Amino acid sequence: MTRFLPLLTLPFALAACTAIPPQAPGAQPATYMALGTEPGWTLEITPGLLNYTGDYGDTKILEPNPGARPSFNGERYAGKRLAVDVTHAECSDGMSDRRYRDTVTVTADGKTVKGCGGGILAPEELAGTNWTFVSIGGTPIAAGRPTSLAFDGKKLSGSAGCNRFSGTYTSDGRTLRADPLMATEMACPGAGMTQEGAFFTLMRAPVRLDFPSDGTLVLTGAGGQTAVLKRAI
């Protein structure tokens, strides 16, 4: 059995000199993360350390952070075993359509790998992206309640923890407008029904779309209520 929901209108530090984004006065510097594929590797840069794991986990190097030196359109870290070049140029991780702020090159014990780092950029378009809910109305999603929100061409579909919903949408990248959504009409005990109700209520009012640098998607209603989602694909 299906029902129609109301029309939705959705206005959518490394050391003293580092590549970590500026922090608020007195705040501790954030950790800078980079990653690459084939072979898989990760790099964590903190104010005190360079922490590299390469070759799908077979190589591990941990050494003091020497501090960043300015380089062409970026920064360079020159340690004893690690050399890291951060270039402020858009980068794709090679395994998905995720885009990052920086292109990163790491030379570990003479072996060079390339990858991406810094903040995650907003997707170029919603079509083809898939998300899962982290919280709705400030409340974390209940355990055992699978959720999803997928954008396929001009159609969106998903579940906020109970019923399946779907509909068509248009978006200019900052706003999204959805036609009336169809939803199944199944009763779910406990938190599943509650969080779904909160989501449908949120979506009845104008909703702004934000893409923080951590890669999440935040839907914000006129009253300040939010739904936070993380990227699945």
SSE topology:
Layout: E1 2-4, E2 8-10, E3 32-36, E4 41-45, E5 49-54, E6 59-64, E7 69-71, E8 74-78, E9 82-87, E10 91-92, E11 99-108, E12 111-120, E13 130-136, E14 139-140, E15 148-152, E16 155-159, E17 164-171, E18 176-178, E19 182-184, H1 191-203, E20 207-210, E21 216-221, E22 226-231
Antiparallel strand pairs: 1-19, 2-18, 3-4, 3-12, 4-5, 5-6, 7-8, 8-9, 9-11, 10-11, 11-12, 13-14, 13-15, 13-22, 15-16, 16-17, 17-18, 17-19, 20-21, 21-22
Question: Descriptors for this entry?
Answer:
22 strands, ten-stranded antiparallel beta sheet, mainly beta, 2 domains, twelve-stranded antiparallel beta sheet, Lipocalin, 233 residues
